[in-house]
Automatic annotation (TrEMBL):
Taxon lineage: Bacteria, Pseudomonadati, Pseudomonadota, Gammaproteobacteria, Thiotrichales
Identification of the protein by name: Uncharacterized protein
Signal as UniProt keyword: yes
Species of origin: Thiothrix lacustris
Family annotation (InterPro entries): Cu_amine_oxidase_N-reg (IPR016182)
Record keywords: Signal
Leader peptide range in chain numbering: 1-27
Transmembrane segment boundaries: none
Domain of life, per lineage: Bacteria
Record field: compositional bias (Low complexity): 49-65
One GO MF term: primary methylamine oxidase activity
One GO term of the biological process aspect: amine metabolic process
Region of interest called Disordered, as start-end residue ranges on this chain: 43-67
Length: 226
């Protein structure tokens, strides 16, 4: 015999179905940003023309020139309780002032809802900045002589093409990490954007010399020995 459901039961089932239907839409607001959203947030947040904004491409910058603003990171902005808007945080390093710009973009309205600048906020290096640091080292005569000697010591061979014969890694350098070993130029690191560069042979043997590169000034400030 078929059981007839009461009106109260039917209403309860309808409420549950409505809740289940609604939950995925809410959860999607917590998802990471899509590539399209990242592109849109970057375009809305940064006033610099796309042709001058550095992302992951390689740029050739002379020591005297100020590098263009560097896009560091785009990530989802955490929502306040009950907030459902899709928000993005866009971090850009302004080399002209040595400040990190933080823009919050509402992706539903395509508007910047807040913007601020911070000093001494150094996010991880981008691929473009790693390439710049490497290029500055390889183009410096004094550094090249040190690299040639170190490569010869380790491998017994001649360093003819650093970009092909060496592996390069780098991380943001702060003066506070080695306060006793730094010269006056390196003590600006943190206030300015710097990289400590680690060099390896193709067999992953690390060099005993590690250059400090001031990316804001476009110079190698000193070498740290291991």
């Amino acid at each position: 015999m078929h059981k007839i459901l009461s009106l109260r039961t039917l209403l309860h089932c309808a409420t549950l179905l409505g809740t289940l239907t609604y939950l995925p839409a809410t959860a999607n607001n917590l998802d990471p940003l899509s590539p399209a959203e990242i592109t849109r947030a970057t375009q809305r947040a940064n006033p610099v023309a796309p042709s001058t904004l550095s992302t992951t491409r390689s740029t050739t910058t002379s020591n005297a020139a100020t590098p263009p603003p560097e896009l560091l990171l785009v990530e989802r902005h955490p929502n306040a309780k009950g907030q459902t808007a899709r928000l993005a945080d866009v971090y850009t390093y302004d080399y002209s002032t040595n400040e990190t710009l933080i823009d919050v973009v509402d992706l539903d309205t395509n508007q910047v809802i807040s913007s601020r600048r911070e000093r001494n906020l150094q996010l991880p290096l981008t691929a473009n900045e790693l390439q710049r640091a490497s290029a500055l080292i390889f183009a410096d005569d004094e550094q090249r002589a040190l690299l040639d000697a170190e490569f010869k010591r380790i491998t017994g061979q001649t360093l003819t093409n650093p970009t092909q014969q060496l592996q390069v890694k780098a991380f943001v350098f702060h003066a506070s990490s080695l306060p006793e070993q730094l010269n006056a130029a390196s003590q600006q690191c943190g206030l300015q954007r710097c990289a400590q560069v680690l060099l390896y042979t193709a067999d992953s043997v690390v060099f005993e010399v590690s250059p400090i590169v001031n990316l804001s000034a476009g110079v190698i400030t000193q070498n740290i020995g291991f």
